[in-house]
Specification:
By secondary structure, the protein is of the alpha/beta class. It is 39% helix and 23% strand.
Length: 202
């Protein structure tokens, strides 16, 4: 059985979750939605043994307890400061891509399954971006799975993955992967995760 390696772009997952929440629940859901991290990791693994996982994201203090939980689950976390002028994260995509390529090289001759949690497929035509690096991994014999919000996922990435691997639309698990809360506490709790229909790379 091939080993499973998880590559997790938290910002992309969370920002897209806000878009989906606004569409599904309306009102203030875009500001109240949170990601149930342990359920998302469980969906990525789908009852398979984790070889390694890397998550990248930003460092607002309120998120520290969330990152701690991920680290306790065996996920390596790399955090980046937001730019002082742009408020954008610095080098997040590039850091995750570096890990993808290092993993490919370190496991040369022993390809595993790469599970990417994102929605970004930009840069393919220029030979850069997540999609381009997944292409490189696939050519080296890696199985490819992408978990992303279908509403915001780059169509080129989605179509490619559906042909050669597995695309998992996170909307199918929305009520299990998210919950909502405000300053007074929980509004909607996440439902238990059901993996019955989770497709896997053959």
């Amino acid at each position: 059985m091939k080993k499973v390696f998880v590559f997790w772009d938290n910002s992309n997952i969370f920002i897209s979750a806000k878009t989906v929440a606004a569409q599904r629940e309306g009102g203030d859901a875009a500001y109240q939605v949170r990601v149930q991290f342990d359920h998302l990791l469980a969906l990525a693994l789908a009852s398979r043994k984790l070889e390694s996982a890397i998550a990248v994201g930003s460092v607002p203090p309120p998120m520290r307890h969330v990152w701690n939980r991920l680290e306790q689950a065996g996920v390596k976390v790399e955090l980046f400061e937001r730019g002082s002028l742009s408020s954008r994260e610095q080098a997040v995509d590039q850091a995750l891509q570096t890990h993808m390529l290092r993993t490919t090289i370190d496991n040369n001759g022993h390809p595993g399954i790469a599970v990417l949690l994102t929605g970004d497929g930009a840069g393919f035509l220029d030979g850069i971006g997540f999609h381009a690096d997944l292409e490189r991994m696939h050519k080296k014999g890696w199985g490819i799975e992408v978990l992303a919000w279908e509403r915001t996922c780059a169509s080129r990435l989605k179509q490619w993955v559906e042909k050669i691997g597995v695309f998992v639309p996170l909307e199918d698990y929305y009520e299990s992967l998210t919950f909502t809360e405000d300053d007074s506490g929980a509004i909607r709790r996440a439902k238990p995760l059901d993996l019955t229909n989770r497709k896997l790379t053959k």
